[in-house]
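Known limitations

Files may contain more than one protein. Parsers should not assume a single record per file. Below, a two-record file is shown to illustrate correct handling: read the sequence, read the token line, then continue until end of file.
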Amino acid sequence: MQVAVENVASLYDPGGEMTGAEFANEVRDRTGCALLLDISNVVINEVNGFCDAAAEFDGLDLDGVVEVHMAGGELVDGLMWDAHSSPLPVGDVEWLERLLPRMPNCDRVIVERDERLQAGDELVEDLRRVRGAVDRALGAVALGA
């Protein structure tokens, strides 16, 4: 059985000398676990001022990613929360499309929705957008782009 560690969304600056990407890579190197990349959590951390999303994604060992989560966030009192309640932001889906060709071991993408389940039309639209991004990314890989 494979064990994976997920990057987190922060509501405060945890401090320290390592970036989130460096920490995830170090945990992977020391334990042999896989990475579960939550794209929305990286974007949330950027919105909250704790990282630069592009630098985080560039710093991650994407070969170790076996699964991607996406959930979007919700702005509350000036902080972005990992809320699992709103439609996926366009930017999160764009990140998925850009990153997926660099994740050769990723075999699933999870759209997380825990609240507002009665808004099924939003969830269906999120799934359509994610499916389109996956298809375009895999098409680019097949073409050698």
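...continuing to the second record:
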Amino acid sequence: MSRNPVTVPALQRRKVAGERITMLTCYDATFARLLDETDIDLLLVGDSLGMVIQGHDNTLPVTLEEAIYHTRAVARGSRNTHIVGDLPFLTYQASPEQAVMSAGRLLKEGGAASVKLEGGVEIVDSVRRCCQAGIPIMGHVGLTPQSVHKMGGFKVQGRGDEQAEKIYRDALALEEAGAFAVVLEGIPEELGQRITQELTIPTIGIGAGRHTDGQVLVIYDLLGLDRSFKPRFVRRYVEMGKMVIDAAQAYCDDVRDRSFPSAEEVFRKTG
């Protein structure tokens, strides 16, 4: 599929035009090549790789080097989609200077087009400094996985008036600091709608209702690769987990009954 690369200005024009934005996570070149043949706008190399790729219980163990490695792999496989690199825990919280250096490495070494940071008012200085350095920043408020211990687990945020108001103020502060978009995760639909209507930058929801400017899903969830993970906000478009199990079992059966490889699948000496 031939199309123009998705840029930050193009995404902002989508907001103005009321056109929906699509984003999926991606962690390797193979998936990146496949998704590059679709209409996906953005590929997020999320620190969710700590859970879906590495098998951790949360995203906290992911390192900056691992984030760069996976971002670089996705960049090799993608030509048209906008690649967002995710900064892992403790790679930007210490100071604005740390944030600029870490975010810069995701662009310089990882090949990302922009960088995502979790947090609101408390990180606006870092967002502002990154933007001043020419690094496009995507914000992330609501359920922020790097704060899993503070939140007491992966729980919906913003149900009470005080918490909802904080998330609302966080989103506005990120826009004011120069963020070009913001992810809204795990918040009530009404709050997602309110923030989307107020901001002039795009909002991308995950478990934030129907009224955000776009949506993001973890690719492994969309494909049904984790058969035990069935959150309410995820729609499985295929049960690939079962397909993988069935295919691997068929292979085992074919090897054991000697039907693989077949005569046609064997290289023979010629001449």
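Parsers that stop after the first record will miss the second one. For reference, the second record is described as follows. The first helix runs from residue 8 to 17.
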